[in-house]
Amino acid sequence: MVGGGVAGLGTALAAARAGHRVTILERDATPMPASADLAFEWDRRGAPQVRHSHAFLARLRNLLVERAPDVYDALLDAGATELRFTDDLPPTLTDREPRPGDERLCAIACRRTTFEWVLRRAVLAIAGVEFRDGVAVDGLIAERGRSNAIVNVVGVHGRAVSGGDSATAAATETGRPFEMAADLVVDATGPRTASPGWLTDIGVDEPAELLVPSEIIYLSRFYRLRDGFEAPEASGPIGGDLGYLKYAVFVGDSRTFSITFAIDTDDRAMRALTEVEGFEAAAAQLVAAQPWLDGRSEPITGVHPMAGLRNRRRYFVRDGEPIVTGFVAVGDASVCTNPLYGRGCSLALVHAFGLADLLDRTPRALALDFAEFTEREIDPWFRAAVQQDREARELLDPAPSGPGAAPSGSGAAPSGSGPAAAGDVDPKQLLRDVFREGLLPAVRTSPIVYRAFLRWFNLESTPDALMTDGEVIAAVMQSYAERGARPPEPALGPGRAEFLAAL
Ligand SMILES: Cc1cc2nc3c(=O)[nH]c(=O)nc-3n(C[C@H](O)[C@H](O)[C@H](O)COP(=O)(O)OP(=O)(O)OC[C@H]3O[C@@H](n4cnc5c(N)ncnc54)[C@H](O)[C@@H]3O)c2cc1C
Question: Confidence class of residue 49 from pLDDT cuts 50, 70 and 90?
Answer without folding.
Answer: very high
